[in-house]
Structure formats: structure tokens, C-alpha cells
Design goal:
It is built from no helices and 13 strands. The C terminus is likely disordered. With about 160 residues, it is mostly beta strands. It has one domain: 7 Propeller (Methylamine Dehydrogenase, Chain H).
């Protein structure tokens, strides 16, 4: 028999049932990604219809379209004055919220860009691709710092120039 040190027993808790507050309608098909916005009570959504929408929690029927992209959006992330949208083909579109224009199209992943994560007080961005790789980007320079070799291979190697 194996003893577990510092074993803890948790008392059963009673949880209140979840209550639906709002339903946000506006996408024409599946929603794949949600991300918080900088303003309290706002968030972004993105999905297979290629749209990125900003929502206010208090007005569920008044979403503001940020972008219409040519392919399904698998991930979305808000970093400073940019919205990043990871597409099904691995592209990461960088959209400027002030000018409302695309400022960059980052390429690393050969398959879908499934996750985008701001790190280090928005000075780094991590991206995860469908082929098993992870990219680490300097922000706001938008330069690749490192990338993983993919599943089952060595952990990290330097960015290619």
C-alpha cells in the first residue's frame, strides 16, 4: 500500500446552479474562440464564418464586427491595440484596433493556429499549431523568438532568420 503524504479531505460543497445571463447572436456558424478585451465587460469572439466580433456583456445583440477574414478563425487574442486571429491554415492575422486595418500576417504553423496566449505583460505571444509546434513571439516587434520542433522531437531551437 502506498501512503500519500499530506493527504487532504475536502468537505462536499454546495454549488449554486449556473444561470444563463445572455445569448450573443451574430455569427453565421460555429464560434471557436473567445478572448477578454481590455475594457471591463467586453470580450471578443471568432469562428468558422471568418468574423471577429467585439461584444459588450450588457448589450448582447450589439456586437461590433472587427474583421471579416477569408478563412475560419480558430483562435483570437487581444494584445495592446491589436487583435490577433489564428486561422485554420496556420496564419495569424494581426489587426490594428485603431486604424481598423491588418498590419501583419504572421506565418509559422503549417496547420491551424489553435491557440494564442499573451505572456509576460503582453511582451510575448505564444501560438500553438495543429502540426504540434509552439511559437514564442516578441511583442510588439512581432518577431519569432523561438519555436518548438513539434511533438516527439527536441524541445526548443532558435528562431530561423
Amino acid at each position: 500500500m502506498v501512503s500519500v503524504p499530506h493527504e487532504r479531505t475536502f468537505a462536499p460543497r454546495t454549488f449554486r446552479p449556473l444561470r444563463l445571463l445572455n445569448t450573443y447572436t451574430g455569427h453565421r456558424s460555429a464560434v471557436y474562440a473567445l478572448a477578454p478585451a481590455a475594457e471591463p465587460g467586453t470580450f471578443f469572439s471568432a469562428g468558422s464564418d471568418g468574423t471577429v466580433v467585439r461584444w459588450n456583456c450588457g448589450t448582447p445583440n450589439d456586437g461590433t464586427g472587427i474583421a471579416q477574414l477569408p478563412r475560419p478563425v480558430f483562435s483570437v487574442c487581444h494584445m495592446n491595440y491589436h487583435i490577433l486571429a489564428g486561422l485554420d491554415d496556420g496564419a495569424i492575422h494581426v489587426l490594428d484596433l485603431i486604424t481598423q486595418r491588418e498590419v501583419r500576417n504572421l506565418r509559422l504553423h503549417a496547420k491551424g493556429a489553435f491557440a494564442l496566449l499573451p505572456l509576460n505583460a503582453n511582451t510575448l505571444l505564444a501560438s500553438a499549431g495543429g502540426e504540434g509546434s509552439i511559437g514564442l513571439w516578441h511583442w510588439p516587434a512581432m518577431e519569432l523568438a523561438r519555436r518548438s520542433a513539434g511533438f516527439g522531437q527536441s524541445a526548443w531551437f532558435g528562431a530561423e532568420q
